[in-house]
Design brief:
The chain has a single domain, classed as Helix Hairpins (Orthogonal Bundle), CATH 1.10.287. It is elongated and about 50 Å long. Helix 1 packs antiparallel against helix 2 and helix 2 packs antiparallel against helix 3. The chain is mainly α. The protein is built from 3 helices and no strands.
Length: 96
């Protein structure tokens, strides 16, 4: 039953990426949902197998997800300062 919840969260994140192709904030939130669903399923399997390694790996995934969000939001702020919008079609303006 709980695996179904993790799969549902993953499916919502995947559908969110497909639907929000022009909104950068929506894509970042959908990627966070994907990582959360994977993390949730790893924790469930860790509890099921009585193994601590899955819980440690889950903490590593959460750390990477937080860093990814911080970098993504920083890019959104820079893009908004340069162009005044956060649309995906202007993302190539950040190339050096």
């Amino acid at each position: 039953m709980m695996l179904l919840l993790g799969f549902t969260i993953f499916l919502l994140g995947f559908i969110g990426i497909i639907i929000n192709r022009h909104n950068l904030i929506g894509i970042i939130m959908s990627i966070e949902l994907l990582l959360l669903a994977v993390n949730f399923n790893i924790l469930l399997f860790s509890l099921w197998s009585y193994d601590l390694i899955g819980s440690i790996f889950s903490l590593i995934i959460l750390t990477v997800a937080a860093a990814e969000s911080a970098i993504g939001l920083a890019l959104i702020v820079v893009m908004h300062r340069i162009k005044g919008t956060i649309s995906i079609k202007y993302l190539n303006l950040l190339k050096g």
